[in-house]
Amino acid sequence: MSVGERIKEEREKLGFNQDSFAEMAGVSRRSQIMYEQDKTDASAGYFTKIAEIGADVNYILTVS
Fold it and tell me: Residue 39 has what DSSP assignment?
């Protein structure tokens, strides 16, 4: 499973749509889509924000 797939999985697990998750993370909806599709790498600041929302960043970044 890719980083983008895990970002999406965590977002959905927390019950957010892309718009609300992106807003809380301080990025555009387009950026959120790009992260989830593995077309763009997210910044450390993004991961810090989503950790504050409740996402398991350790899980997201531990790709097997």
Answer: S
Q: Where are the alpha helices (DSSP H) in 14-62?
A: 18-25, 29-36, 44-53, 57-61
3-60: pLDDT as tens digits: 999 999 999 999 999 999 999 999 999 999 999 999 999 999 999 999 999 999 999 9
**Tokens 């697990």 -> residue:** 13
Which pair of structure tokens corresponds to residue 37? 């599709």
Sign of the CA dihedral running 45, 49, 57, 40 = negative
> CA 19 to CA 27: how far, in whole Å?
9
